[in-house]
Amino acid sequence: MSFIVSEITIYPIKSLAGIALQEAIVEERGLQYDRRWVLADEQNVFITQRQNEQMALIDVQIEAERLKITHRVKKIAPLIVPYLPQTTDYKTITIWDDEVKAIRVSDEVDAWFSTVLGIKCQLFYQPNDSIRLTDPRYSITKEEHTSFADGYPILILGQASLDSLNERLAEPVSMKRFRPNIVFLGGEAHIEDDWKYFSIGEAQMVGVKPCARCVLTTIDPETALKGKEPLRTLNQYRNFNNKVLFGQNLLVVKTGKISVGDKIQF
């Protein structure tokens, strides 16, 4: 049985729209540029669509040495976010149970996001020397680290898993609901639950923990409207110990380039 990478997606700014790629570089903390930026409130606590679903309407593009940010609905000028922060304002950002050192990007960037989202917020970047260790209970070397992702460097999800869910739904949902980094074709639904060590392109990864899903999956990524699905249906057949599991969290064993069309090798 063969498994083929069909989609690669990064989410440079946590909880904003993703960017589909044909190839990506796997780094120790995840795909290059993936969730290296995060929005935080006045208490330096991270903000996601859980608090403000309007974040789903903000698109991100990668340009030369910068990000271009646009709003899908509001008539507001695009925002340019340079890769290198324009301040030396270091803060400790709280994300779940972790505290992560980060640098505020700029006053202009903060003003744009505060206006668009209707809340006072600031954008922070995680520099290379900011190391956020992953949960030691699911670590291989105890040295694996990650970005501003919820907890692990990479999320993989099989197309068959989504197809199985959509067969149960009155209205199908897109893969965007689940924000995976890697989507693959082949195999049965949820076959990724049991994956351990495997290679894609030049990179090697290891599955360590199925991904527990939250209310963010109930927000339509195209409209930012919130409902009860697909979480309600998933809860009927993917509930394990009161957690709805969908997709597999990965740690990085070996860095390198991966591409759409690569075979997954075990």
TrEMBL record:
Entry-linked InterPro entries: MoCF_Sase_C (IPR005302), MOCOS_middle (IPR005303), Pyrv_Knase-like_insert_dom_sf (IPR011037)
Domain of life: Bacteria
Ranges of residues in domain MOSC: 126-266
PANTHER family: MITOCHONDRIAL AMIDOXIME REDUCING COMPONENT 1, MOLYBDOPTERIN COFACTOR SULFURASE MOSC
Protein name: MOSC domain-containing protein
Organism name: Emticicia aquatica
Organismal lineage: Bacteria, Pseudomonadati, Bacteroidota, Cytophagia, Cytophagales
